[in-house]
Design brief:
single chain; 207 residues; alpha+beta; 50% helix
Length: 207
């Protein structure tokens, strides 16, 4: 059955000349009722459409919020991974004079020192250079002892002889330090550099 519209009810007025006088009021009431019914159906149709649009918009907003949360979580994970990678490859990484890792340098060492001694030395210098512009860049077992690597922002404005004296007097542990329970002063070498590791200057704590 074809759906009626308000325009169809208007067209009924064309037959008013054939309607008897007693039936006119009934027909007008029927036309008004049909118009009200069609109007309610039209309003319900548009109300349903608006409700569906509102539901779709809410779903889009939830999806955008979920994507933002997911993006934030991924960004946090990436920052954490970058920090862990920097920490493991930077200050906590053991480097030798040629830039290799501790395990690479240990293969060429005389093995006169062990991991326990190396760990104690690293713990001491990590605590000493925890704050400030100078950075502890690791330690390595070498043929003549254990080398400690300290990076400075800028080269020291001192002659090599005075730089070595500075290392012995200021960077080497004090005479009463517990670190000397693990290593002798003549076996502890401190390497100071600013930009290039190979251009730095070394000094043993006791010559």
């Amino acid at each position: 059955m074809q759906e009626k519209t308000i325009a169809d009810t208007v067209n009924l007025t064309l037959d008013f000349n054939d309607v008897e006088e007693g039936q006119f009021a009934d027909m007008m009431e029927r036309i008004r009722a049909e118009r009200r019914a069609l109007l309610r159906a039209t309003q319900e149709k548009y109300a349903k459409s608006r409700a569906q649009k509102a539901i779709l918009e809410q779903q889009r907003q939830r999806m955008r919020l979920q994507l933002q949360c997911l993006y934030g979580a991924v960004l946090a994970i990436m920052i954490t991974l970058c920090w862990v990678f920097y920490d493991s490859s930077g200050s906590a990484h053991r480097v030798d004079k040629t830039g290799g890792t501790h395990h690479e340098s240990e293969r060429f060492s005389a093995h006169q020192f062990n991991e326990a001694q190396l760990s104690e030395i690293e713990r001491y210098f990590m605590a000493k250079f925890f704050v400030g512009d100078w950075r502890f860049r690791g330690a390595a077992i070498e043929d003549n002892g254990i080398s400690v690597f300290i990076e400075t922002p800028q080269p020291l404005a001192l002659e090599p002889h005075y730089q070595r004296e500075y290392i012995r007097s200021s960077l080497c542990p004090k005479a009463d330090s517990d670190i000397w329970l693990y290593i002798k002063p003549e076996d502890l070498n401190i390497h100071l550099y600013s930009e290039n590791l190979s251009r730095g200057l070394s000094a043993y704590c006791a010559s």
